[in-house]
Amino acid sequence: MSRKPNHLLGQTSPYLIQHLYNPVDWRPWGKEALDEARERDLPIFLSIGYAACHWCHVMERESFEDEQVAEFMNSHFIPVKVDREERPDLDEIYMNAVQVMTRQGGWPLNVFLMPDQRPFFGGTYYPPASGYGRPGFLDLLVRVHDTWDKRRNQVEEAAGGLTEQLRAISAGIHAGDLEAPALDEAATAAADRITASFDTVNGGFTHAPKFPPDTQLAFLLRQYRRTGQDILWEMVDRTLTRMALGGMYDQVGGGFARYSVDERWLVPHFEKMLYNQALLAPVYCDAWHVDNRPLFRRTVCDTLDFVRRELTHEEGGAYSSLDADSEGVEGRFYVWKPEQVVEILGKEDGTLFNDTYDITAGGNFEGDSIPNLLHGEPDGAIQEKLATQRARLLAARETRVRPGTDDKILTAWNGLMITGFTAGYQAFGRSEDLESARSCADFILANLLQEGRLLASWREGSAAHPAYLDDYAFLARGLLDLFEAGGGDRYLDAAGELGQVLLDRFEDKERGGWYFIADDHEDLLVRNRSGLDGALPSGAGVATETLVLLAARLNLDRYREAALRALSSYAGELHRAPNGCSSLLAALDYLETGVPERRVCRDGVCWVDRKS
């Protein structure tokens, strides 16, 4: 039986389109859904995810495709679907709510709201049936409906208390009488805390699951250049090496998965996000400047080639992600059996490749093998042969059913990717990397900048959603990096104009620092501000650092003064959690030690332009 589309008809987000024919009558977030909840006096069931999310797919198959679940949801709730990548403002608010309630977070993010947007209950993935102390999804819906219908006072009390906590979070850590610490004090405290959590065997700073610690590694490299402390380089070297040798890095096609499910960086969560490539490439470049290891260069070049090959629009913008699943199975596109390799490469070459990359009959992932080099990096003498073998396997892999591509183009992530491409060009002098940075920047400026204001997302000729702090901060920094790499003066001019919008629309005029949404954004439950890094660098930190750099390049004191106000306003974060403030510490570094004279870079050769 064919289904009719639900209220998501007309949306362009690949994630929302995935749910277009669910029997659940999803609405997009907006005035119509909120008005309907008020008029019908029903709670909102808000479900937030993204197109590459494996557990989002699982919950869709188990629950949102279930006719009984859909009938109950449609009768007793207003179901609303949100793409977290298009609406990070909503995702941040309601992720904070779930973390307050459960001390955990993740996607899919499922939250029950009052019609006035206040949350009162929520969690992440819910299984279809109750068991092991966890409620099944339909059982949960019945309980929430019963509470809403019979004990509304409890719902109101929960919503009120939770909203108070969210407003406290949104205000950020109050600095009180604290002043921003000096660079030496803050950087030393941050390095000490990071060192205390270092995994001396596998690298990284957490237990499983392990996410690439890109912002912390970038900080450690800056601190190493400042102090020369060997332990700082040892942590960077160990972590970057193990990540590049592990299965989280795609040994055949280049590029990193979002995280490793184990401590060794062996088994990835197979989705590949643009921002991981954008953030890791500059760190590997910086490490290569310290130690010219071929592994670091190869990792950068293959990662940038992957983005160019698989995540780039024909006109230059970069897509958001590749799915974890293909043919409904997580990781199927990326794993191998020994006989498959031998069939493609022949017995001798196939045996060499299998032995080198740990591809065995028993496998290391559900009976198959994820190529990795964790048992030892191969001798340099056979690297050329292995490169040829990888290219042949990549060509063969391209004949498989590919994971889905989330082909929306996000301003913020493209800003990061411009920095990634320029870092590769400045390190290795490949002209294609500079051209990729230019075409990426030109695409965003042509398609997502309208009347001096940015939009956050573009797909199939349509740009949408007023941009956020990250969009302005990351793009301005990327354009500035492109200018520094010899891209052209117009990129400096564009970065300066974005800096002015940051001052006009995002600055906290009372305390200094930055709000995540502009002053003319739609009314939301809270207006968040934070200086802490997360999966992405802190937009507040990058905005502050970028204004310091723009102040030097454009000789604009107002940008430097805004940066000083921002660092003062985030003094609480810098004192309490300096290891979570790598982006703010970069800004503090430039303010205290000065901005270097302009570097002019062409064909991988950089020198100081004494005329700047």
From TrEMBL:
<feature type="domain" description="Spermatogenesis-associated protein 20-like TRX">
    <location>
        <begin position="6"/>
        <end position="166"/>
    </location>
</feature>
<dbReference type="InterPro" id="IPR004879">
    <property type="entry name" value="Ssp411-like_TRX"/>
</dbReference>
<protein>
    <submittedName>
        <fullName>Thioredoxin domain-containing protein</fullName>
    </submittedName>
</protein>
<dbReference type="InterPro" id="IPR024705">
    <property type="entry name" value="Ssp411"/>
</dbReference>
<dbReference type="GO" id="GO:0005975">
    <property type="term" value="P:carbohydrate metabolic process"/>
</dbReference>
<dbReference type="InterPro" id="IPR012341">
    <property type="entry name" value="6hp_glycosidase-like_sf"/>
</dbReference>
<dbReference type="InterPro" id="IPR036249">
    <property type="entry name" value="Thioredoxin-like_sf"/>
</dbReference>
<dbReference type="Pfam" id="PF03190">
    <property type="entry name" value="Thioredox_DsbH"/>
</dbReference>
<dbReference type="InterPro" id="IPR008928">
    <property type="entry name" value="6-hairpin_glycosidase_sf"/>
</dbReference>
